[in-house]
Amino acid sequence: MKVLVTGGLGFIGSHTVVELQNEGFEVIIIDNLSNSSEEVLVGIENISGKKPVFEKMDLREKNAVISFFEKHNDINGVIHFAASKAVGESVENPLLYYENNINTLVYVLQELQKKDDASFIFSSSCTVYGQAEKMPITEDAPVQMAMSPYGNTKQIGEEIITEVAKVSNIKSILLRYFNPIGAHPTAEIGELPIGVPQNLVPFITQTGMGLRQQLAVYGDDYPTPDGTAVRDYIHVVDLAKAHVVALKRLLENKNIDKVETFNLGTGTGSSVLEVIHAFEKVSNQKLNYKIVGRREGDITSAYANTDKANEVLGWKAQSTLEESLASAWKWEQKIRA
Ligand code: NAD
Question: In a 3-state reduction of DSSP, which class is residue 172?
């Protein structure tokens, strides 16, 4: 089985390529290296013993996408990770986000629509729920107005796929990730944030390494047990494995609906302070942090109800928060060595 992984050199994509290769899939990666490096291929090969085929390509180039699918007309499934993901940048440059996250999706779907049968996995996000009313969040919780152009591209992406699936042979699974963290336990691949990290865990590990002086904790007056914001942190390897399960479901025609949606989280909410203290435990050091005011756009709490993924996909996150943080720490230490 041949699978195209767009954005396959990125954080979640690279871990998914490893799991796909471990399961015997033949993988082709498309990536324009806008947020990754070709060296990731070496890490993938070191873990799985196989170097995937790599095509350096920008999916915004429609003609390149057309030529690619003409050349590789035997692709059975596509996992579409390629996108820009910095929320703040999307507020400053919305059109970059609509072009990169929407046009690329449209071009890939246009080629898949020509096929008799196509399986398509889409990287969506729990941001579609905004601040949900009920915790844990189930898949039927209402999608709320997006708080950023980035978030909007995920909502629009889900809508586009749903509409196209109705009139084509495309089957799709929309995966709504909660907060992916960690790295491969071998520390061969991991997250490589460019510039100041936007997410909590890379900021923590960089502070632990002394690359950042201090971690700012945005707000301790939220209505949560310790006042800091609560999220559902899922190990990237667990997340990667869910993609393989979801893809197989489509390839084996086990899906019940043309488009299915699943939350991917652990089901447990952790506060910022809990994450900091868990990190202090696994790294055996005190972290320099300071409570500051709330950050605009942040919600209070989001964690997943994972019953649907557990029951329908037969998938469950395995790693604990400590294990995820330990892997992130090991990776940070390796790349700074
Ligand atoms: P990432 O930036 O590490 O990976 C994305 C990859 O896509 C990068 O390697 C980048 O170079 C590539 N890319 C971007 N635009 C491209 C284009 N036009 N053509 C070809 N390649 C292109 O991001 P990630 O964290 O691995 O996220 C993967 C997907 O999951 C994204 O769609 C993201 O929006 C979504 N997601 C991520 C998170 C998260 O917290 N990391 C949460 C929810 C959803």
Answer: strand
